[in-house]
């Protein structure tokens, strides 16, 4: 967590637009609902802008978005920084050859899949999602990418807003892409 983003006045505005719903989808879960953020064009744009400002010009060629809420925040970030968008999807949604990674959620189990060949050896990637709870989904995404061409280097988490970006430096060229 970096100091400059804590101090950015846009952060507080973004935080106020995220609705917290107690006991959804089951007792004990404090659900962070980003649909209310999406209803406010300024707060939504501020959210995207914060990430674009942070990652533009960093030689990132891949934005990998985690289904489903990473599909909301990932594409506008990808377009703005000039990167391609790669969806990390729930099972049996992608029609081509895939690699899969299972993981445990706050309220269940799930699996992510990525198309083989969507990312080339040597590319630099950003993983985008709306929130970390247990971290299982993010770990699965990183394992998915890591099992293909990447070596994990750093995770960057905004912490004060429930949008997460994991940054992966791909330096292992162990596949045929
Ligand atoms: O840190 P974790 O414990 O792994 O939880 C975080 C994940 O849970 C939510 O997605 P969910 O699996 O509910 O899927 P959805 O976006 O399709 O609703 C959220 O969007 C993250 O992807
Ligand atoms: N607390 C939470 N709020 C929103 N989405 C979630 N996914 C897992 N835990 C969550």
Q: Please count the beta strands (DSSP E, at least 2 residues each).
A: 9
Compute the gyration radius: what is it? 16 Å
Tell me about the largest β-sheet.
Answer: 5 strands, mixed
What is the fold-level CATH name, i.e. the topology?
Rossmann fold
Percent of residues in helices comes to 25-40%
The mean pLDDT is 79
Proportion of strand residues: 25-35%
- The total of helices stands at 6
Bound molecules: 1-O-pyrophosphono-5-O-phosphono-alpha-D-ribofuranose, adenine
Q: Unreliable stretches, pLDDT < 50, 5 or more residues?
A: 1-5, 148-164, 169-177
Q: Provide the structure class.
A: alpha/beta
Distance between the ends: 33 Å
Query: In sequence order, what are the helices and strands, one letter per element?
Result: HHEEHHEHEEEEHEE
Q: Record the strand order, biggest sheet.
A: 4-3-7-9-8
Domain count: 1
Overall morphology: flat
EC number: 2.4.2.7
Pfam family, one: Pribosyltran
Family: Belongs to the purine/pyrimidine phosphoribosyltransferase family.
Main location: cytoplasm
């Amino acid at each position: 967590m970096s100091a400059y983003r804590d101090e950015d006045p846009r952060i507080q505005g973004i935080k106020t637009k995220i609705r917290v719903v107690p006991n959804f989808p089951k007792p004990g879960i404090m659900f962070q609902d980003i649909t209310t953020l999406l209803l406010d064009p300024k707060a939504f744009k501020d959210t995207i802008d914060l990430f674009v400002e942070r990652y533009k010009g960093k030689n990132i060629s891949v934005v990998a978005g985690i289904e489903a809420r990473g599909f909301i925040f990932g594409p506008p970030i990808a377009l703005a920084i000039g990167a391609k968008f790669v969806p990390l999807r729930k099972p049996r949604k992608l029609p081509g050859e895939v690699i899969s990674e299972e993981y445990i959620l706050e309220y269940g189990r799930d699996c992510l899949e990525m198309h083989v060949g969507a990312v080339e050896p040597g590319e630099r990637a950003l993983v985008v999602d709306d929130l970390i709870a247990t971290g299982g989904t993010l770990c699965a995404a990183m394992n998915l990418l890591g099992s293909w061409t990447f070596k994990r280097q750093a995770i960057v988490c905004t912490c004060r807003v429930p949008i997460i970006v994991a940054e992966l430096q791909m330096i292992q060229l162990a596949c045929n892409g």
